[in-house]
Amino acid sequence: xxxxxxxxxxxxxxxxxxxxxxxxxxxxxxxxxxxxxxxxxxxxxxxxxxxxxxxxxxxxxxxxxxxxxxxxxxxxxxxxxxxxxxxxxxxxxxxxxxxxxxxxxxxxxxxxxxxxxxxxxxxxxxxxxxxxxxxxxxxxxxxxxxxxxxxxxxxxxxxxxxxxxxxxxxxxxxxxxxxxxxxxxxxxxxxxxxxxxxxxxxxxxxxxxxxxxxxxxxxxxxxxxxxxxxxxxxxxxxxxxxxxxxxxxxxxxxxxxxxxxxxxxxxxxxxxxxxxxxxxxxxxxxxxxxxxxxxxxxxxxxxxxxxxxxxxxxxxxxxxxxxxxxxxxxxxxxxxxxxxxxxxxxxxxxxxxxxxxxxxxxxxxxxxxxxxxxxxxxxxxxxxxxxxxxxxxxxxxxxxxxxxxxxxxxxxxxxxxxxxxxxxxxxxxxxxxxxxxxxxxxxxxxxxxxxxxxxxxxxxxxxxxxxxxxxxxxxxxxxxxxxxxxxxxxxxxxxxxxxxxxxxxxxxxxxxxxxxxxxxxxxxxxxxxxxxxxxxxxxxxxxxxxxxxxxxxxxxxxxxxxxxxxxxxxxxxxxxxxxxxxxxxxxxxxxxxxxxxxxxxxxxxxxxxxxxxxxxxxxxxxxxxxxxxxxxxxxxxxxxxxxxxxxxxxxxxxxxxxxxxxxxxxxxxxxxxxxxxxxxxxxxxxxxxxxxx
Length: 693
Known about the structure:
single chain, Hect, E3 ligase catalytic domain fold, alpha+beta, four-stranded mixed sheet, 5 domains, Rossmann fold, five-stranded mixed sheet
């Protein structure tokens, strides 16, 4: 059988049969359509092509025709057409080739230029013929429109049911779908509900999804959830898992549909399908408040979204503080530049102390140098001082509230452990009953059930050991002494602030309860100062100025130490003597360390305190200090022995030096009654031995 539109030039090239189904489900369930498309190869043979010249392109089975970007078979077909290798294209209908007018007309242009005919089950079309081109163009437009009509028909009933809140959606952790009531219900498993509530409670305290996940890991807790079969499973909650729960409005009792859109996006010049776009709350297609029981209020859900948005440091904005993180800079994320108004960042690393740096000029490409920077130590101390002054709630109410909260959190941890233990015991007992119910002669089944029973017993034993370990290390239950300590700490916020157990993350979260922003501006006249403006959440502003040091941050000596050094230098003291005197008086350096000769020299140079170049003392260190302590020479003169003998006493442990000596500093000694008697006896014994010899 021949056709008038098929010429010898077409038969000299190959015929391509193109197959496509939109989804793999259609491929498996709509097999008749697939067979009809494969049968087009016989139609090509009937029209004059030999079987070896007929090629079947079926790579796109299970691919949508909305775009040719991800259809390898269509792209290969178009490439062969452009190279002049194809004489005819066979497809069941236009929609099999494309449901996009752009892709369809591009293929028609290629076929018209290379003289390729297009055939289906009924007819043959020549794209270079104006009438056929018009008809094929109309078919392509109808195919594209049909795609949207089908989508409207399929989604119309779905949206109608969603508007009533009856469309079944995947139940999030902590909920199950009630078919009878056509709505979500709280999960009947107590352990599942408790873990979900704990996530929201910890987020109120920590303010970060990462810290919530870390809390579960630190306390050996797991997230109880349900798998696709409805069985309760336990797993460690990742940060992504916590974020999904915090972002889900279902936990606020709202039924929501259409809060995300899947769009085809252009990325780096290429189409990318499946790009998820999160819509704002006002753009959600369906939003029914108070549809089911809630874990949190709607107001708390909205506040959580604002907090999570502010924690995201990847998006720079003036109102984003970022999540509180470990690091010595307590005002991280809160500091604004008083010069340009941009947010200042924290710079720290190695042995260098933290600094607040404004990089607005660098980020804007205006300069290669920062706008300005300042050491964080004095700024943090000043803001913390004003914060502790402002945070003075009534002691009695605060103490009771803190005690109740600590006991409640401890009780929650205890209940979570008990729920896990209760379930583990039930599963062990169930495995035991199954084993005992089987016929003992049926050894194949009995061995399997016996192994399951032993495995459940091992899991129960490991869980009980983990619970005992948690009780020892994590203080799950509060004793009377613990409650008394909590009451004492609640009445003394500065003590809690300075406690070694209080982390920088906790201090930063405390600051953010009252402090909204802190603006820093340099002042050079009449003195080098830093002007600090504290904006409180109440709208009040506190302004104060602190000294801005010129030297390396973190080593500034106190004014008392500087004055003492200046006085001793004026009296002719050497740097090594001044360092010893400072250590004796208990005056520490800017880093809280004991003084050395080099440190005193450094302070003199920075403060331009000129040394009087006092001559070295004759005979080394004095025999006796002003506070009554004796040097090695003083001890030797007191007992009438040599200095070598005194050092022998020190090495043997008979004579113990006072604290603060050694490592380049002189040794000083306290001669109490015991030391006096002990050393006098040693002297007498040594003299008797020499006389006997």
